[in-house]
Amino acid sequence: MNNKNQYSVSAVVVVYNDYQSLIELVGSISRQVDAIFIIDNSDIKLKISDVVLNQPNVKYHWLGQNKGLATGLNEGIRLCQKHNSEWVLLLDQDSIVSEDMVACMLDEYGKNTNAVKIGMLCPDVFLSDKGIHQYPLYFGSYMVNKVTDTSDHVDFAITSGSLIKLSLFDTLGYMDEMFFIDYIDYDFCLKLRSRGYKILYVRDASLKHKLGDVKTSKIGILYTSHLPKRIYYQTRNRLIVVRRYGVLFPSFAIMQLMLFVLKFFKILVIEDKKGTRLRCYFAGIRDFFHEKSLPC
What we know:
This protein has 2 domains: 3-209, Spore Coat Polysaccharide Biosynthesis Protein SpsA, Chain A; 214-288, no CATH class. Helix content is 36%, strand content 24%. It has helices spanning 22-29, 50-53, 69-82, 101-111, 167-172, 184-194, 228-245, 250-269, 274-288, and strands spanning 9-15, 35-40, 58-62, 87-92, 95-97, 118-127, 132-134, 137-139, 144-146, 152-154, 163-165, 198-209, 214-216, 222-224. Helix 7 (228-245) packs parallel to helix 9 (274-288). The longest helix has 20 residues, at 250-269.
């Protein structure tokens, strides 16, 4: 199965201060897409391996500084548009694409009787550092459900592995660069869904992904630890997305407000540097009211 004969697909990979995983990632995707745009968000230009750069369909672009994940994604998406691609595959630097993942998703898309309303495709994601699946979500009236057993329409999937129609960005706009990092995927997915477009989950397509910073607490709880500044963006951006889409997706709002409260207790009970993390948490609440970004 070769998607290149049917659709034009380009991939965007945003990297930040690390490129070791790029060799394996590029190797897993280079034959599945027409072009790979590596967007380097590092403060100092990375010395990308020749194994990566010598691939004929790999293009490298350094932004000159860390401008945030959303800006990096948008830069790559615009390059794909200039390349006249029909679809863009968004990937994290620490993801590995299974053989024929792209073709599998597009094949399922081609079989769909209402394909015109499908704006995004997503694979089955396995979190290799946690040993669990990151299933996409469907927001019911009062419950959030994980879609696990079949190809179906969903309301949310993570950014890495998402395959999006490039024409959609002309209609919906690009990723919200104010977010910098975190909740970019929630914001875009819910914007897409609120405008009547669908997200198709393709169970037979698979991707391995690493969350990073997975730790074990003193009481034996496995958790993902983030830098204090990320706690700021998670808190602020979570509340902004709830404000934007909570009325349309009430179960999403309930879930996120519960996580918002749980995050506070997680900092108190599990995390280290509690004072710094709490300052960033409350700074995120403060700046939510202004939808702006200030140092915490």
